[in-house]
Amino acid sequence: MGIVEILKAILFGIVEGITEWLPISSTGHMILLDDFVKLNTSATFKAMFLVVIQFGAILAVIVIYWKNLMPFGFQKRLTVKTDILSMWGKIIVACIPAAIVGLLWDEEIEAFFYNYRTVSIMLILFGILFIIIENYNRNKQPKISAISQISYKTALIIGLFQLIAAIFPGTSRSGATIVGALLIGVARTTAAEFTFYLAVPVMFGASVLKLAKFGFHYTGVEVSILLTGMVVAFVVSVLIIKFLMNYIKKHDFKVFGWYRIALGSIILLYFAVKSF
């Protein structure tokens, strides 16, 4: 049983690493995957695993963007990079709305909205938004083309879009923040990069919260499943982040919009047929 569960954890790690960073909703894919590939664990462990597996994805961002994220230097003496400290201030501002809602109503949100109908609707809705916004911005020059140009006001607006994703699964955290950023004139590559940075405190906080709620009593198989999922998610995330940044230098996000619409429709159809 242990080897089979490890293989399942590898599959979940691959899906997490791909879908966490592409704006296509990791939750939507996890719902479908979980319906076909059942982890032979308790319901509480599985709920924790599906969140904490994201920790591996976070590490990918930290490794790739270490120089952009670390505000302190340690050469001959300690140096402080004020531009990076300023960026972290904006990241914190952007994270405040989702953090407050998550801490106060995490269980209520999960009970009311974590279902295939919500996921499908949000997949389709934000897929349509991607297509509309990209068509609207087709011949426009972005107002903000670097992280340093993002103001606290801009960061807060992006954070409010992130809040939508925190409440409604299927929105996609990266999808929501990128849509919000594009709407207010942020360049695609800058929007994607800022979204990666936002993920660090958000996903780290969510992982710690789930771990604290679950406790620290694991079987050997559970430890293996969790570590395997995180390691695989890390490796796949490194590849996907690099792919996405290269892709959007020459292409827009419309392909992800069409994919979201197709996936949302497939999920609705699948569960409708299954209910008969």
TrEMBL record:
One annotated GO molecular function: undecaprenyl-diphosphatase activity
| Gene Ontology CC terms | plasma membrane
Any GO BP? peptidoglycan biosynthetic process
Q: Which domain of life is it from?
A: Bacteria
One short Pfam name that applies is: BacA
Enumerate the catalysed reactions. di-trans,octa-cis-undecaprenyl diphosphate + H2O = di-trans,octa-cis-undecaprenyl phosphate + phosphate + H(+)
Stated family: Belongs to the UppP family.
Note in the entry: Bacitracin is thought to be involved in the inhibition of peptidoglycan synthesis by sequestering undecaprenyl diphosphate, thereby reducing the pool of lipid carrier available.
Name the UniProt record assigns to this protein: Undecaprenyl-diphosphatase
* Lineage, opening ranks: Bacteria, Bacillati, Bacillota, Clostridia, Eubacteriales
Q: Coding gene? A: uppP_2
